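Lab notebook, bench 4. Continuing the backlog of folding jobs that were queued last week. Each job is logged with the same field layout so the records can be merged later without manual cleanup. Today's entry covers Molybdopterin molybdenumtransferase, a 411-residue chain. Filled in by technician R.K.

JOB TYPE: sequence-to-structure
TARGET: Molybdopterin molybdenumtransferase
LENGTH: 411
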Amino acid sequence: MGCCDVPGLMTVETALDNIMTQVSPLTTITTVALTDAMGMVLAEDILSPINVPPFANSAMDGYALRAADLEHSDTLTMIGKSFAGIPFTGMCEAGQCVRIMTGAEIPVGADVVIMQEETQVDADNIQFSVKPKANDNIRPIGDDVHCGETVLVKGTRLTAREMPLLASLGIASFVVYRRPKVAFFSTGDELRPVGEALAAGQIYDSNRYGMKALLEKFGCDVLDLGIIADCPEKLRQAFVTASTEADVVVTSGGVSVGEADYTKDILEQEGEIGFWKIAMKPGKPFAFGTINNAWFCGLPGNPVSAMLTLYQLVQPMLAKLAGHSQYQPPVRLQAQATSMFKKRPGRTDFQRGIYSINSAGQCEVTTTGNQGSGAFSSMHHANCFVVLEQDRGRVEAGEFVTIELFNHTMY
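JOB STATUS: finished
OUTPUT FIELD FOLLOWS
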């Protein structure tokens, strides 16, 4: 048995594969207005109904003219002006030019634009210091997008990069998938809401705030059921409510294998749940399955463990559920460690790190310090995970490691 072959532990890759093979995208679709579509996932391809730009226009401020005219003379007569939204309506004929602004329609007859810096102006007589080629500084019809072209494919999640594109096509509404609805809560008699005084043995419920923030960034509609005490009746009712009102139920705490609490008992009675021990650190205890008609993800109770498992295991699951076929996992790079990272073989370790680019343009990473699963300040200081392989041991400064950059959901 190798050093990483720990009995009873499931690899991170196997756990994620088990989740992803079971989950299918939601099929409910709805039509939304462009103004309400940010973060939604397209349920159909988007084909452009127009050319962009819809007319040939100038790429700069200058003069529109016929390029051939400058073969015989360097001075032409200005006959009018073309502004963006107020085009010149006549024809540009031999020996003539039209003053034109950036984005304005090219006058009929003109085939080139010369920038104003390459001219000398004497009333309506414009002298040109260059001899351009036809079509210089002209944006042709359909230069960006052609009518009928597929501009966005089904399964694309709309971000600030896609919204202006759709607006430029004049598309006011389209079909998207319904957002996944996620109900979540924390369990434990020791948890207290923020703002209340703590009694002996109590701590503040921090996990719910991180869960809500990430779930909303994942593009979900969320239902916060608060803190549920270790009471069988209250827990059972919380699970019933969550599983009947949401597509996914996410909890933190109460899923450790061998732990004697009501949460596990109720889950086993009400659903089909697998309680896994995953070879990841932090975050070994994790539960996945179904309860009524909802998917269930049970996160560990420690704050870093809860956020890490939500980020690594639940995020891609929710992307698939949302129909986001273009989802990409967080970017991983190689970096040189500038500090030591403690580790024992046996589990894939997701340590919190701070990466930077040194003066030589090389990627470096250092530890945030305390890597305990309850030390959540490490997440605040970090900008990446240092992903140390399951069979790897202690890392010395100077060694190369894999880092995983935080994606947009962490910012």
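OBSERVATION: Residues 1-5 have pLDDT under 50 and may be disordered.
SIGNED: R.K.
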